[in-house]
Write a structure and sequence with these properties.
Distance between the termini: 65 Å
Largest sheet: 5 strands, mixed
Strand order of the largest sheet: 1-2-3-5-4
Strand content: 25-35%
Number of strands: 5
Structural class: alpha+beta
Shape: extended
Number of helices: 2
Low-confidence stretches: none
Order of helices and strands: HEHEEEE
Number of domains: 1
Mean pLDDT: 84
Oligomer: single chain
Helix content: 10-25%
Length: about 110
């Protein structure tokens, strides 16, 4: 019994790698670099200045649906990059099955 307790204690004391999300400035990278960074890290936070108001904007962008919480799916979103005004990347958005027109019955 003591052996099991000591083993459990040893496992809980092992250092675990922190899963911090990286932050980047999208307008200092090309669109290809932005997309490669998101794809390589899985999820990142991108920052940029709004062209209209100059306000700092940011968002969390993901490589695919697997990085989205439950009830959210990855959908295309567009952010500025150094070489393009709108670079396509995935962003998690709220999803309701009722919104899916393919499955909706038409009476």
């Amino acid at each position: 019994m003591h052996r099991i307790i000591w083993m459990a204690l040893a496992v809980t004391l092992l250092p675990l790698q922190a899963q911090a999300i990286s932050r980047y400035n999208s307008t200092s990278m090309s669109c290809a670099q932005v997309r490669a960074t998101v794809r390589g890290e899985g999820e990142v936070i991108m920052r940029w200045r709004s062209a209209r108001s100059g306000v700092q904007r940011y968002g969390r962008f993901v490589a695919h649906d697997g990085f989205c919480p439950t009830a959210e799916i990855a959908e295309w979103s567009y952010i500025p990059s150094a070489d393009r005004a709108s670079c396509p990347v995935y962003e998690c958005k709220q999803y309701s099955p009722e919104d899916d027109f393919l499955w909706r019955r038409r009476w």
